Amino acid sequence: MMVLAQRLRLDIVAAYAARLALTLVSVVMRPLPRRDKVTLLTRQSNRAPSDFVMLRDAIVRLDSSIEVVVISRMVPPGIVRKFAYAAHLLVEMYHAATSRVLVVDGYSIIASATRHAPGLKIVQMWHALGALKKFGLSIVGQRGGRDPRLAKAMRMHEGYDLVISSAERCRAPFAEAFGVDVSKVAVAPLPRVDRLRDPAHRAKVRKRFDYLYPDLIGKKVALFAPTFRTEGRMATVDPLELTQAMADAGYATITKLHPLVPAPTTDGVRTAPGISTQDLLLIADVFITDYSSAVFEAAVAEVPSYLIAPDLDEYAQRRDFYLKFPDDLGLPMASTPAELAEMVRAGAADAVAMAALRDSFIASPGSVTETAAEHLARTVMVEDERSREDHDD
């Protein structure tokens, strides 16, 4: 039976079945009238991402007559819970069928696997800044990427009318990752940039951090956030070893893993539950990562940053990058925690290099008075107006 299942690749069979079912539902929903509505859809978490909240508020400020719906629902584990999730997809399909704009921040079966009636603009607003390690269609069929047959069955990243990137140099990588012409890739940094630059939000985070962790008041803090690794792989840097090495350099280390990875429970490793990686960047004195795109957020927050990549050769073969790593980042890189601690102790991170990294990968808003959220909202809604005119013609 196991051999038969492997030959049939039941996940691929299930993918085609899901597509067929959703297609039938979409046909039934086609007569539903579209409204002046924007639907923001994510399966990255069960809570509305800050980017979606800020984008929603910016859209409403631009035009209060537009209805904005935010739907946040992760795909749950287990067969029974997946059946419940399948029922939830009907809700998502209803909102897509009655919206003029659908914004997603990753792959969405609703956006890509089904055919939609005319009048819907589908926008891909990827959930990370910059363009560092390859993802999406760039690595289909490669180690760390999706099986080509499954990608085809799920129509992976098909159907986008507009793709958002954070800078001009990110347009070509995003066009490749999402299978669109580069002309469909617009430059508009994610709204999180506003929070990373906001002194009032920084002060609020500092107050909350000091309340939760009074023992760290007055101490230098290093934030370690390694990249998410597929196939159950763990970071090759031991958080405890890094914590001990950084303690010798005079820093208390906080380790924040990807939300999909369980937090480490090792004694001596701090994880600061209840505070996000983005917010921790606002109180950190040093940021450390291997290959995480959070390094671009650190650049916006003006946090001196360091790389530690003991498995660079192996990782590059499995995943690869959109740039020359680490040269194009201009950041100091170590191979061991002890080497990294020495670099931090010597202050090897260059403020000029951090500013250059920020300016290269994070574009500024259209005007000095416009926030990133407003610029993104305007970009999305201008495209929607054009699509409405084309549809009316």
UniProtKB/TrEMBL annotation:
Molecular-function GO terms, alphabetical: CDP-glycerol glycerophosphotransferase activity
Q: Which GO terms describe its biological process?
A: teichoic acid biosynthetic process
Top-rank lineage group of the source organism: Bacteria
**Protein name according to UniProt:** Putative polyribitolphosphotransferase
Family affiliation: Belongs to the CDP-glycerol glycerophosphotransferase family.
Localization:
Cell membrane
Sorted keywords for this record are: Cell membrane, Membrane, Teichoic acid biosynthesis, Transferase
Q: Which GO terms describe its cellular component?
A: plasma membrane
Bilayer topology: Peripheral membrane protein
User: Which Gene3D superfamilies does the record cross-reference, listed alphabetically?
Assistant: 3.40.50.11820, 3.40.50.12580
Q: Where is the signal peptide?
A: none
